[in-house]
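Is this the right way to post structure tokens for a design question? Let me know if I should format differently. Anyway, here goes:
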């Protein structure tokens, strides 16, 4: 399957394909999946900022509510 083939698929089929890919990745041993260096650097910096008390944190219930408000249709 090429990118052109994927572009022509209906959205529902694209979502099924994406779910199949994600399921396949979930079955891949974690030592075979290496994040890119930039991602590790970003996470390391975020943890450093959090540990230093420079990041605002929310409870899970507050975060869910914020996400729900942002996801509501206008």
């Amino acid at each position: 399957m090429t990118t052109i083939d994927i572009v022509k698929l209906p959205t529902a089929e694209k979502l099924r394909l994406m779910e199949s890919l994600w399921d396949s990745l979930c079955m891949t041993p974690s030592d075979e999946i290496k994040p890119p260096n930039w991602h590790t650097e970003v996470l390391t910096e975020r943890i450093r900022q959090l540990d230093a008390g420079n990041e605002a944190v929310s409870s899970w219930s507050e975060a869910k509510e914020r996400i729900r408000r942002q996801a509501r249709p206008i």
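Format looks fine. Someone answered above. Worth noting: Residues 42 and 48 are 10 Å apart (CA to CA). The chain has a mean pLDDT of 92.
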